[in-house]
Amino acid sequence: MNIRDLEYLVALAEHRHFRKAAEACFVSQPTLSGQIRKLEDELGVSLLERTSRRVLFTDAGMRLVQQARNVLREVTILTELASEQGESMTGPLHIGLIPTVGPYLLPKIIPLLRDRFPDLELFIHEGQTQQLVQQLEEGKLDCIILASVEEAQHLKELPLYNEPMLLAVNEKHRLADCAEVALDVLQGETLLMLGDGHCLRDQAMGFCFKVGAREDQRFRATSLETLRNMVAAGSGITLLPQLSVPADKRDGVVYIPTTSPTPSRQITLDYRPGSPLRGRYEQLADAIHEQMTAVMNDRTRH
Length: 302
Fold this sequence. Notes:
The chain is α/β, with parallel strands linked by helices and about 300 residues long. Helices cover about 45% and strands about 20% of the residues.
């Protein structure tokens, strides 16, 4: 048994398909299948149910998968320790971002990071919070940038910036001429929301429910751009994070600051507890925090 065998096993558990698992591991399907069979022979236990056309794991197989994930996570930590790059901003760095942050944050920080850390090779991955947290725990990602949520409380968090949410209404809406509104003006209103899996959905709904607003059950968006287009079409109103608001604001949508309270979310950079690369993540977070403080202050003034 070796580390590569465990990687094959975990990949098969994730993809539940031999070809897809082999592609993810950059090997042929016969190679992966043969190594899984060899692992079973070595352990003297069946890991898969061979009678099914689908990839089904036995109870013993699922227990081994979980232990394999733990081993691979520890191997990642050992690799980080051996690299002696805790403070060094060189080499590859895999960063995960949620879809409601990535498209709006990356254009503002990538030029800065390339200029400040020219020897750092950035690999960007996008996914929903639960997926990113799992990939971080499994060592597939080095750090993740997301809105602070309960699912990530066991991780180490470095604050980046606080992002207000604005009320987005059609330019012909009754509130369109307001310079700002109290949040309780949404009492009795129906708001458009993102679909399940987006942490922004839960955060926005939390603020809305407190003031007596409800969700429009007829539609759930897959992205902020879909929400914006629905508002522009006059199909409803919603809350959007400030960074997603276009600079020229000429899209048929009016964005209104809300008060009492101001809905917002805390964006953080998260990494595995005990990681020897803490110094690297702190430097990265400091650079992003510095840049985004200036950006958010500029947005507030305008």
